[in-house]
Amino acid sequence: MISKVITGKSFSGCCRYVCKPAERAEILYVHGVRESDPKQMAEDFEQSRRLLPNKHRAVFHGILSFHPDDKVTNELMANLAQKYLQEIGLINTQVAVVKHTDKAHPHLHIIANLVNLNGKAISDSWLGLRGKKAAQALTQAHRLIVAERRPRKQPGRVLSEEETVKEEIHTAIATGRMLCHSFEELQNWMVRHQIDVMFKRNRAGEICGISFRKGKYAFKGSSIHRAYSFSGFQKTFGYRPNIRIEQAPRLRRGLRR
């Protein structure tokens, strides 16, 4: 599965493009907007955008493309789209998920409002990268076929060994968060991927931080993604007295970040 992200200013133009013509577009899921007509849908998006008038680029347009051999039902597509939005931080906001049938491979268009239902701005920083990582994790979690992009005419910078390991840890955590139901399950998941989970304690012996190590490289959870801090995992799984944090080792001084 491949993710592409576009941000823009016009809900009217985006809704019209995504939902018309009706012969190629099938609405799979909506939240907070009407689906009967693209004009009404755009009006609903604009009404929420007006809660934050200074947010000019409030249109999120995401495209999820699947491999032609992937057997994905409408139900699975809608479910993947919602997990994708949650993973990149687009929650508590208006959404429309639309399947297009004009190409050989299955693909989705996702419209979301970067002004949430409380009138607060949703960060659009690194949305493209966040979308790419979420798509990679979902592809692995749901055992989809890896769809490869065509090579760039001007290849980008080659990742260093340390950056490559950091990407591998990120993908493992993102996938584990979707598959695991408890923090203990996540720890076992990381061990199976040869990744050590380590904890930092304060003077009172309470856990106050988390890091991940693979091979000779280790990273604070929050440096991989802000949701991967210890407090972030507490929010995801809730506090459980029986998780194995009491046996976890302390972080050593001089840990490579």
From TrEMBL:
What InterPro entries has UniProt attached to this entry? Endonuclease_MobA/VirD2
Pfam family name, one: Relaxase
Q: Which residues form the MobA/VirD2-like nuclease domain?
A: 17-144
Q: What is this protein called?
A: MobA/VirD2-like nuclease domain-containing protein
Protein species of origin: Chitinophaga barathri
